[in-house]
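As the work plan foresaw, the team has encoded backbone shapes as discrete tokens. One protein thus recorded appears below exactly as we store it.

:::
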Amino acid sequence: MQPLSAPAKLRWLPRDSEPGCHHGDLLRRAVRDIDLHQEIRALGGQPHSGASEGLDEDNAVLWEPASLDDNAPFYAWIAAETKVTRDIRRYLVNECGLPKQCVTSMGYWRLGKADE
């Protein structure tokens, strides 16, 4: 077990809590509600122009591992439906400026697609 340097925060996002909300919207909104900009700037990250990271949209599984660095003050680990994972990763990297090496993301299933 790893000790946490700060108190952990947990927020339950019940899927059916907002009528008309699409799959993943609550999670995307919750990530955007966290003020990450100060923490990311401490890493030397800068927002990008919003250019694509070059992820293949047709991949069955999205797996982008981070480069582990014990000195990094911030690290993101994302695992969800592939489109939601990709959107959150792009937000963190392109809009917030989090260095790609500080993000591990895994889209382990695709909405509307059966396992192959």
Notes: The longest helix spans residues 82-95. The first strand starts at residue 62 and ends at 64.
